[in-house]
From TrEMBL:
PANTHER family: MARR FAMILY REGULATORY PROTEIN (PTHR33164:SF99), TRANSCRIPTIONAL REGULATOR, MARR FAMILY (PTHR33164). Coiled coil: none annotated. It comes from Cryobacterium glucosi. Residues 27-163 form the HTH marR-type domain. InterPro entries: HTH_MarR-typ, MarR/SlyA-like, WH-like_DNA-bd_sf, WH_DNA-bd_sf. This is MarR family transcriptional regulator. Pfam families: MarR_2.
Length: 185
């Protein structure tokens, strides 16, 4: 993992003042469990969706967000913020979905700078075709392995953390610097 473990010193100790932050062994185990579990399930879900309906997990999630939105449409920036992806990354994925006839993009009637993505009937059909296998996979890999109380605890803890993190400026609010763009960031 990418977080260096702590040497065991208390972060408030005078010896630690000015030292690089670190994590305890227990925090490291928690971090590894979160990241590795998410990566394993996401990889399997991506593979299952590619095999079942020819879509990536990212594309499937875009369609899900659109399906859940009023009238099946959202501003592109709102989708990027909800999925915590870059605007350029979202634009690429939506262009692929549009080429497949699963979404349409239209200018926003109220804001000439905004683009609205709309799910099509074919997009709804792709979700209907891919949904059952996706749900089965997530259930088998995750939900069947934890009890109702554990699920409630995990949901509460991660829900609170997510809410705190979502209160920060959205990723779409930041512009890449020219140096980062030239470096391929």
């Amino acid at each position: 993992m990418s977080i260096p473990p702590s040497g065991g010193a208390n972060p408030g100790d005078p010896e630690r003042i000015g030292a690089a932050p670190s994590v305890s062994p227990a925090e490291m185990r928690a971090w590894a469990a979160i990241v590795e579990t998410a990566n394993i399930v996401q990889f399997a879900a991506d593979r299952q969706l590619r095999d079942a309906v020819g879509l990536t997990l990212a594309q499937f999630e875009i369609l899900l967000r659109l399906l859940e939105a009023p009238e099946g449409r959202l501003r592109m920036t709102d989708i990027a913020d909800a999925l915590t992806v870059s605007r350029s990354g979202l634009t690429y994925q939506v262009a692929r979905l549009e080429a497949l006839g699963l979404v349409e993009r239209r200018p926003s009637p109220g804001d000439e700078r905004s683009v609205i993505a709309h799910i099509t009937a074919a997009g709804r059909a792709a979700l209907a075709a891919g949904g059952p296998g996706y749900v089965t996979l997530v259930r088998e890999m995750l939900f069947d392995r934890i009890g109702p109380e554990e699920l409630a605890t995990v949901t509460e803890i991660l829900g609170d953390v997510r809410a705190q993190l979502r209160s920060r400026p959205k990723r779409s609010a930041f512009r890449r610097s020219r140096g980062a763009a030239a470096a391929g960031d």
